[in-house]
Design goal:
Elements (H helix, E strand, L loop, with lengths): L4 H7 L5 H11 L32 H13 L3 H15 L35 H15 L2 E3 L4 E4 L9 E9 L2 E10 L2 E8 L3 E4 L6
Parallel strand pairs: 2-6
Antiparallel strand pairs: 1-2, 3-4, 4-5
Helix pairs in contact: 1-3, 3-4, 3-5, 4-5
Length: 206
């Protein structure tokens, strides 16, 4: 069976680089990528059920792990697409809250459609609530260097947000606050608090 589990291998970096592309491309085919996120099980599988708990539904935390894995192998557009789709789904649920999971029906882009709720999904739910933080880490492509003296930031192009503001991000033994604003298709970094050097670079696509 083709499942989303293989995408976790990208996050764990256990796949050889020359094989990673096959996993990424497979995750993004229509039977896996619903348009609202990556399904747990391919819609081509005999036991696929978009309204089941595991056999075809979409889990936000599952997608957050896969998206970061895609970025780690350099698949920027695919990672951005996964994140955008799940965030857009979350904005259509009550209180803009990501649920534990939702149904894996395909997104119909001809209309202003919404994902279908899984009736017994917990909301709020711990790992679904944690997913936006991993999405944010991936979206900003942020990581410290030189014992926390340098912070690299390279936002992924999604069109979702024109501005980011992070406050009291723990880097080593200090808290750092900074903002990003998009101007003319480029992001401007501003350090608001903390003794750290902010650096930016272009995130290239494989």
């Amino acid at each position: 069976a083709i499942t989303s589990n293989a995408g976790h291998c990208l996050w764990a970096e256990v796949i050889e680089p020359e094989l990673a592309e096959r996993v990424v491309r497979r995750m993004m085919l229509p039977d896996m990528f619903s348009g609202w996120g990556i399904r747990t099980l391919s819609s081509a599988s005999s036991n696929y059920n978009p309204m089941s708990y595991h056999n075809g539904s979409v889990w936000p935390h599952d997608n957050s792990i896969i998206a970061l894995g895609m970025l780690r192998y350099g698949y920027v557009k695919e990672a951005a697409s996964v994140i955008s789709s799940v965030i857009e789904a979350g904005l259509r649920f009550p209180s803009n809250r990501l649920p534990e999971l939702f149904c894996g029906f395909s997104r119909d882009r001809r209309f202003n459609s919404s994902p279908m709720a899984y009736i017994k999904s917990c909301s709020p739910q711990a790992w679904a609530a944690a997913a936006p933080f991993l999405f944010l880490q991936t979206l900003l492509n942020v990581h410290p260097e030189n014992c926390g003296k340098v912070l690299w930031v390279s936002p992924l192009p999604t069109g979702l947000f024109a501005r980011f503001r992070l406050e009291r991000l723990r880097i080593g033994d200090q808290r750092v606050s900074f903002s990003l604003k998009e101007r003319a298709s480029r992001f401007e970094l501003e350090l608001l608090d903390g003794d750290i050097e902010l650096r930016s670079y272009s995130a290239d696509t494989v």
